[in-house]
Amino acid sequence: MTILTTQTAVVLSLACLLAANVPAEVSAAPAVAGSDSSKLHAYSVCKKPLIRKEWRNLKKSEQKSYLNAVLCLAKKPTIAKRSAPGAISRYDDFVGVHAKQTPEIHFVGYFLHWHRYFVHAYEKALREECGYKGAQPYWDYTYDVTKGGNMTSWPLFDKTYGFGGNGPYVPYVSFIPGRTGGGCVQDGPFTYPQFSLSLGPAPLPIRFDVPPPTETISTSATPILTTTTTTSTSPVPTTPTLPKMTDFFPPTNLTISNPHCLKRDFAPQYLSDQVNISNYRLVLSQKDFASFAFLLEGGPFVDPSIGTLHGGGHFGVGGSLGGMSDPFLSPSDPVFYMHHTNLDRVWWKWQKAGKKGERYRDVAGPIVPFDYQNTVKGNVTLDYVTHLEELGKGAKVRDLMDTKGGFLCYDYEEL
Ligand SMILES: *[C@@H]1O[C@H](CO)[C@@H](O)[C@H](O)[C@H]1NC(C)=O
Ligand SMILES: *[C@@H]1O[C@H](CO)[C@@H](O)[C@H](O)[C@H]1NC(C)=O
Ligand SMILES: *[C@@H]1O[C@H](CO)[C@@H](O)[C@H](O)[C@H]1NC(C)=O
Ligand SMILES: *[C@@H]1O[C@H](CO)[C@@H](O)[C@H](O)[C@H]1NC(C)=O
């Protein structure tokens, strides 16, 4: 066990896309927001699942139609004014809803479930509102990281059949080693003003500068939590010192419309230290959901010598100044969905590897962000309800366990 210095703790906490704000009151089944969200999803039979493929396995015409559908979403008017009054486009709606819920949906037991639902809603919008015929693709970075080379030469970042490349280098002192960009994306479909984001960006001078509380972390995969105790003789209540989102990042004001460009800040070395094949195998070798999800997501309680797939994808592409590295606004970069679909695939692969379907029922992890030791509340269960504000009604965790059950109907080409 190591007591971290404040500085190291900042690094580690951010290295997992820290997003934690302990809500004053979190009920086991939180009130479901949204116009029709008092209703839950009904079960349906999944006969013809959409098959999600790796980006490089799509035909060129399929790549083009996907990219065009994303651009189409960015031209359609918002429907999420209640959650994000500053949103202009349907694309912004997804950024806004993620930003609004960021304090509750990370470092909790339903992190993967929420993002599974979120990507599904995005895939549905692309198909139903923008005429996209295919499934949401994913990015398996282990191919690229193993092969190496310049990130801008990887298929995903192709300027014609991909998401375009890096931004020009902007000097900035940061905890991400070897960042190479930071400015507006220069080529490909997502340049400004063709692709315009309305929400954010977060005020940079404040980002990363505020020291977090000192944390104790474990060198094993088991989370250890520091607690502060008083030295009174009466029975002492133990107060958990859970990290909070606002310890590191200023909240983004979602009422402001501020059309701006997408930025990227590639950090190739960081990416390959986090998402390489050994870290990927380590995650998949976990025996229970709690350990699997904990390692996959990363965070200040995870041994810093272990890379995290989640943090790696975000900070490897977003560095410090890019859209992908902002815990609230990370869906600003369309690559967000390629990354999170891949995490969903890794989870599905892990789920399918279980004996007798036991992993389709395995869920654990805290209700309250970072509360891995249940000092504040218990674990998420199959009956826990989550929702997507205007983008999706209430869904039970149990209905987000099976990609071909509940209301979901998709599978992956390669596992
Ligand atoms: C990667 O490619 C880009 C675009 O061609 C170039 O600007 C950059 O210098 C290259 N990076 C390295 C490390 O070679
Ligand atoms: C957000 O911005 C709006 C519009 O400028 C302002 O009225 C409001 O006070 C801001 N909210 C916060 C929390 O700063
Ligand atoms: C993956 O990265 C870790 C550091 O996070 C390193 O220890 C390990 O050797 C790397 N594995 C490969 C195959 O590059
Ligand atoms: C929460 O889940 C963890 C991991 O499975 C488990 O060790 C712990 O006992 C659970 N807590 C409660 C209160 O059930």
Automatic annotation (TrEMBL):
PROSITE patterns linked: TYROSINASE_1 (PS00497), TYROSINASE_2 (PS00498)
Annotated GO MF terms: metal ion binding; oxidoreductase activity
Keyword ATP-binding among UniProt keywords: no
Lyase in keyword set: no
Pfam families: Tyrosinase
Residues of the signal peptide: 1-28
Keyword annotations from UniProtKB, A to Z: Copper, Metal-binding, Signal
InterPro entries tied to this protein: Di-copper_centre_dom_sf (IPR008922), Tyrosinase/Hemocyanin (IPR050316), Tyrosinase_Cu-bd (IPR002227)
Superkingdom: Eukaryota
Location of the Tyrosinase copper-binding domain: 106-123, 333-344
PANTHER family given in the database record: TYROSINASE FAMILY MEMBER, TYROSINASE-LIKE PROTEIN TYR-1-RELATED
Full protein name: Tyrosinase copper-binding domain-containing protein
